[in-house]
Specification:
Number of domains of chain A: 2
Distance between the termini of chain A: 59 Å
Largest interface: A-B, 47 and 47 residues
Structural class of chain A: mainly alpha
Order of helices and strands of chain A: EEHHHEEHHH
CATH class of the largest domain in chain A: Mainly Alpha
Strand content of chain A: 5-15%
Radius of gyration of chain A: 20 Å
Number of helices of chain A: 6
Largest sheet of chain A: 2 strands, antiparallel
Strand order of the largest sheet of chain A: 1-2
CATH architecture of the largest domain in chain A: Orthogonal Bundle
Oligomer: homodimer
CATH topology of the largest domain in chain A: Arc Repressor Mutant, subunit A
Number of strands of chain A: 4
Chain lengths: 147, 147
DNA sequence: ACAAAAAACCGACCGTCAATCGGTTTATTG
DNA sequence: CAATAAACCGATTGACGGTCGGTTTTTTGT
């Protein structure tokens, strides 16, 4: 019964860059969030902070960390006995990547889709927001120059 | 065997706004794309334009249109015998929604996550891009005022 | 050195969702 | 009213996140 080969492009692979940009599940985001907040941690620590309350098992946290590692959102290092996971992307970088791939996915013919998307945003912003935006941009600029 | 009830928050529901923001599949995007490009169309027309080449069946296109309709990305109207589907969101609106929900999903404590993401982008932009960005914003502003 | 404890690893299962289509029902229309 | 066309229904597949239980490997205390 090999008459029709079904093929579906995985939404994972960005064919341009061959760079994976994934969708993240709720738990995955929570875990990332936790590591951003508390810094490098091992499974136990993350479990203690977010697993306990959700009444999920240590194993679940474990495999989520693992998945995040495979997705290159986390890196890990064996500290004495256990892996210590740490963020490989900052929240801002994550948002950046996610937004960029989202936009690129629905981007039309226009080359400036990203810019365009944000132009919409900026156009809607009120004076107050504009002001904060300018400050933010200035700060980011400073950060960049400093590197 | 009702000892453990597993529960998983659907990534569909934005609890803040109770507004559904979905992920779109590749075919779904292609179909939307097609309708943006060619305007209101019935299943046959869409199939002729994008189904033929992909060697998928008319039914597949049909259910994709249906799904898009359920997701409120398309509206439809019975024209004589067949449904005619038309876009309910423009490409820009779609990008807007998608970006916004993406950001909100990973947004930290900061209230200005969206702005912040924008700031990152702007900070990275070169002079040329900034110029185009300003033009874009001006144009969008004009469009808004005109309403 | 070895047994107990801890952590990693493996593999399975469930639910959801997009993609895909065959077959049946329900219009349309000549 | 019969033939044709479109809509509708429901089933299957593959991917993926979430969830664990059990087994293997590694660490460590005595």
């Amino acid at each position: 019964m090999v008459d029709t080969v079904r093929f579906r492009t995985s939404p994972w692979v960005n064919t341009l860059t061959n760079h994976r940009v994934s969708t993240l599940g709720d738990l995955e985001i929570a875990v990332l969030e936790d590591i951003w907040r508390f810094g490098p941690s091992d499974t136990k620590a993350v479990y203690a902070r977010i697993g306990q309350s959700r009444s999920i098992s240590l194993n679940t946290v474990q495999s989520t960390l693992e998945r995040l590692f495979r997705k290159a959102m986390l890196q890990r290092e064996k500290i004495s006995h256990a892996y210590e996971y740490s963020a490989r992307v900052s929240r801002r970088e994550l948002i950046q990547k996610l937004v960029e791939s989202t936009v690129r996915r629905v981007a039309g013919p226009q080359p400036d889709a990203l810019l365009s998307a944000f132009a919409d945003l900026a156009a809607r912003a009120d004076d107050d927001q504009i002001k904060r935006l300018e400050e933010l941009i200035a700060r980011r600029r400073a950060e960049l120059d400093q590197t």
